[in-house]
Specification:
The protein is mainly α. It has 3 helices and no strands. Helix 1 packs antiparallel against helix 2 and helix 2 packs antiparallel against helix 3.
Length: 99
């Protein structure tokens, strides 16, 4: 959801900030991040009660989708981070241990 003045909704803004902290994206990460942005925008729309396209107020069925959108966003972000966790397992990481 783009608010007045071109600002994003709070969830989309937070997700974009989190993804930006990941640095360069590779493989399927760019498309997963775009899915995350779209889901975050939908969550902002559902919680604000505004149409994504025109900004007009919309009736309440969007709030029924909020739990599903939230689950999907969590799963998408987890999948995006999943590949990053494997990069942390380096063979030299235990040099400080006496074993």
């Amino acid at each position: 959801m783009i608010l007045e003045g071109g600002a994003m909704g709070p969830v989309e803004e937070a997700v974009r900030s989190d993804v930006e902290q990941l640095g360069d994206l590779a493989g399927v990460e760019p498309s997963l991040s775009e899915v995350a942005f779209a889901l975050a925008r939908s969550i902002d729309t559902a919680t604000s009660g505004e149409c994504q396209t025109c900004g007009e107020a919309v009736a309440g069925p969007e709030d029924r989708t909020l739990p599903q959108l939230t689950r999907e966003l969590r799963l998408t972000l987890a999948q995006l981070l999943e590949g990053r966790a494997a990069d942390d397992d380096d063979d030299l990481g235990d040099l400080g241990s006496p074993d």
